[in-house]
C-alpha cells in the first residue's frame, strides 16, 4: 500500500480527487472548503441519482391503483421525456460524471412507462405496445455515437423549450380541470428537490450553462405545481366534472 493510502482509499476516490483525500485523511484538514464542496456535490449527486430510480414510482402506482390517467397531460410526458433524453445523451457525449446526470436516464425509463400507461388507459393499446420500441430505437441512435455532438448540443439547447411546454401543459391542465387528478404530490416534491439540488451540483462540477438554466427553470415550474396540488388538495373531482 502506497504512503498516504488506506483500505478505504479506492472507495473514497470515487467521491473526491486524490488531493482532497490527502487533505482529509493524511493532513487531517477536515475543513478544507474546496474539498468539502466537492465532497458535498458528489455525495448529493449520487443521492439524486439513487432517488431518481424511484422518483416517478409514486405516480406510476397512483395511475395503476386508479386505472386512470385523469388530470394528466400526455404532452407533458412526451416533452419531459424529450428533455431527459437530450440531457443524458448530451451529458454522456460530453463525458460528464454520471453523478451529474444519471437521474435523467432513470427518470426517462419511468416516464416512458407512464406514456405507455397513458396510452393503455386511454384505450390505445397498440400505441402502448409500440411506443417503448420506438423510444428504445431513438435512445440507441443518440447514445451509440451515430449522432454528431453538434446535433446533441442543438437538442439540449431546446431543453428549455421542451421543459416549458411540458410543465405549462400540466399546469394548464390542472387549472382547466380545477383539480390535479392523478398527479402525484410525492413525485412532484421529489422532482423539485432533484432539480433544486442539481443547481448546486452543476455549478460545482460542470458549470454547463444549458444544464444550469434547465434546472433553474424546472425548479420554478415544480414550485408552481406543488402550489397547485396544495391549493386543489380538498377539491372533489366528481363535483368538478359535474360543473364542467
Structure description:
This protein is mainly alpha-helical and 244 residues long. The chain is built from twelve helices and no strands. Helix 3 packs antiparallel against helix 10. The longest helix is centred in the last third of the chain and has 23 residues. The chain is globular, with a radius of gyration of 21 Å.
Care to give the gist of this entry?
The chain has helices at 9-12, 18-25, 33-52, 57-66, 74-94, 102-121, 125-143, 149-157, 159-177, 185-205, 209-231, 237-243. With 244 residues, it is mainly α.
Return residue spans where pLDDT drops below 50 for at least 5 consecutive residues. Answer: none
Overall shape: globular
Which structural class do the helices and strands define?
Answer: mainly alpha
Q: Tell me the Rg in angstroms.
A: 21 Å
Query: Ends: how far apart?
Result: 73 Å
Mean pLDDT: 89
The topology string of helices and strands comes to: HHHHHHHHHHHH
| Helical fraction | over 70%
Number of helices: 12
Largest sheet composition: none
- Count every beta strand, where a strand is a DSSP E run of 2 or more residues: 0
β-strand amount: under 5%
Amino acid at each position: 500500500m502506497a504512503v498516504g493510502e488506506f483500505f478505504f482509499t479506492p472507495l473514497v476516490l470515487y467521491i473526491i480527487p486524490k488531493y482532497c483525500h490527502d487533505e482529509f485523511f493524511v493532513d487531517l484538514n477536515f475543513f478544507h472548503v474546496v474539498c468539502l464542496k466537492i465532497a458535498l456535490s458528489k455525495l448529493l449527486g449520487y443521492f439524486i441519482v439513487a432517488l431518481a430510480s424511484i422518483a416517478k414510482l409514486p405516480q406510476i402506482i397512483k395511475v395503476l391503483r386508479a386505472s386512470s390517467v385523469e388530470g394528466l397531460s400526455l404532452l407533458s410526458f412526451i416533452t419531459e421525456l424529450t428533455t431527459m433524453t437530450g440531457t443524458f445523451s448530451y451529458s454522456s457525449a460530453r463525458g460528464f460524471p454520471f453523478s451529474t446526470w444519471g437521474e435523467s436516464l432513470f427518470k426517462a425509463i419511468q416516464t416512458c412507462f407512464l406514456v405507455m400507461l397513458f396510452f393503455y388507459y386511454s384505450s390505445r393499446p397498440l400505441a402502448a405496445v409500440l411506443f417503448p420500441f420506438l423510444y428504445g430505437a431513438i435512445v440507441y441512435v443518440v447514445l451509440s455515437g451515430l449522432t454528431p455532438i453538434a446535433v446533441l448540443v442543438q437538442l439540449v439547447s431546446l431543453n428549455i423549450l421542451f421543459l416549458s411546454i411540458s410543465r405549462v401543459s400540466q399546469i394548464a391542465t390542472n387549472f382547466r380541470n380545477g383539480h390535479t387528478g392523478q398527479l402525484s404530490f410525492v413525485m412532484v416534491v421529489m422532482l423539485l428537490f432533484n432539480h433544486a439540488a442539481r443547481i448546486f451540483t452543476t455549478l460545482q462540477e460542470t458549470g454547463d450553462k444549458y444544464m444550469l438554466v434547465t434546472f433553474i427553470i424546472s425548479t420554478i415550474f415544480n414550485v408552481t405545481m406543488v402550489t397547485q396540488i396544495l391549493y386543489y388538495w380538498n377539491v372533489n373531482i366528481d363535483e368538478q366534472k359535474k360543473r364542467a
